[in-house]
Amino acid sequence: MALDAGTLDVLREIGNIGAGNAASALATMLDDKVNIGLPSCEMVPFTQVARGFKSPEDLVVGTLVQMSGDMEGFVLMALPLDAAFELLKLLTGEEFSGNADDYGAVCEALAPVSEIGNILIGAYLSAISSMTGMSIIPSVPATTVDMAMALMNIPVVVYGEIGESVLYMETDFHNEVSSIVGQYFLIPTVESSSRLMSALGM
Amino acid sequence: MKTTIIGIAEWSIVRAPDKISTLGLGSCCGVVLYDSLFKIAGMVHVMLPTASAAKVLTNPAKYADTGVELLLEQMLKEGARKSAIAAKLAGGAHMFAHANMQSDLLKVGERNVQVCHEALRKARIPLVSEDVLGTHGRTITFDPATGSLHIRTVGLGEKDI
């Protein structure tokens, strides 16, 4: 897939706007400042798709929402385990007291992240929707705890047919003391990326 | 002794005592072909089922059908004997299986496994063991010295197949 530099710049700005709105939503929930990093938007080889994580086997909580309507594809929110626990602690006041090696207990404790992800991804997409005038319908969220690389198989499959790289559109976010850090990945299908460009008159 | 780690859409061949590994298989599949007498093993990390949809085949290691063919060819070049080659297979998970989402993209793991089976059958390579499907990521390491495929699955522990 060949996306020119101009297109990537526009997509980067889209990611920035989405993540900015999601950051405001999270800031309201936490009553704390939430900052976003510089968004990246580039073509990345398959083998480097998990480069935003400590290691390909790093355990992360992934919340996935499928987009339909004018834009098709997925949005993935990824949080390292400790950040997810910190987020829940700040929101519910409850600390995880179970055994961190007990996968079942960890998943159960982290289940509410799905709803938080739903709200944040909703904020992310509504900003993109108002900016572009495209109607984007998010699915119900699904959340899992697994290896970073295994979750990042999703963009690989979405872009796999068309080249040797994936569209890597990522924005990270963190609270003031950086006890919570996370990432959003916007994964529009190839057809949707072109549709997005025409919606913006490009 | 070293362990060669391959990434998505890559392949490699090692000889004992070296090992070969790939990290965090989700819907992707890791196919191992090995000659247990000569102790040579190859692994390919495929991500999609068939190459037929691709206009130009730039990298056969991307697809289950062409990936198996490619790996067999390379194994024979490395001196493995066709009659002695056997296979082991892992991967093909559906990472968000509980999701109420209608997308063939999310179910590609199942297709990957199916096409790996077909490709092995077509090449007349016996599939000795496999750990496929499910909803969890896997890290796999093959040891040509013992013919054992070590599998680490988050939440489900480790095993050798």
Structure notes:
The complex is a heterodimer of chains A (202) and B (161). In chain A, strands 1, 2, 3, 4, 5, 6, 7 and 8 form an eight-stranded antiparallel sheet that branches. The radius of gyration of chain A is 16 Å and the shape is globular. Chain A is built from seven helices and eight strands; from the N terminus they run H-E-E-E-E-H-H-H-E-E-H-H-E-E-H. In chain A, helix 1 packs across helix 4. The longest helix of chain A is centred in the N-terminal third of the chain and has 26 residues, at 5-30. Chain A has helices at 5-30, 81-92, 103-110, 113-132, 148-151, 153-159, 190-199; strands at residues 34-36, 40-45, 59-69, 73-80, 136-138, 142-147, 165-175, 181-188. Chain A is 43% helix and 28% strand. In chain A, strand 3 and strand 4 form a beta hairpin. Helices cover 18% and strands 37% of the residues of chain B. Chain B contains two helices and ten strands. In chain B, the strands form two sheets. Chain B has a five-stranded mixed sheet, with no helix packed on it. A five-stranded mixed sheet of chain B has the order 2-5-4-6-7, covered by helices on one side. In chain B, strand 6, helix 2 (108-122) and strand 7 form a beta-alpha-beta unit. In chain B, helix 1 packs across helix 2 (108-122). Chain B is globular. Chain A binds chain B through residues 46-47, 49-50, 55-57, 59, 62, 64, 66, 103-104, 107, 139-140, 142, 144-154, 156-158, 160-161, 163-164, and chain B through 7-10, 23-28, 47-48, 53-54, 58-59, 62, 93, 95-96, 98-103, 105-106, 108, 135-139, 154-156.
Write down the overall geometry of chain A. globular
Taken as a percent bin, the fraction of beta residues of chain B is 35-45%
Helix coverage percent of chain A? 40-55%
Question: Strands across the major sheet of chain B, in which order?
Answer: 1-3-8-9-10
Beta strand count of chain B: 10
Q: Helix count of chain B? A: 2
Mean pLDDT of chain B: 93
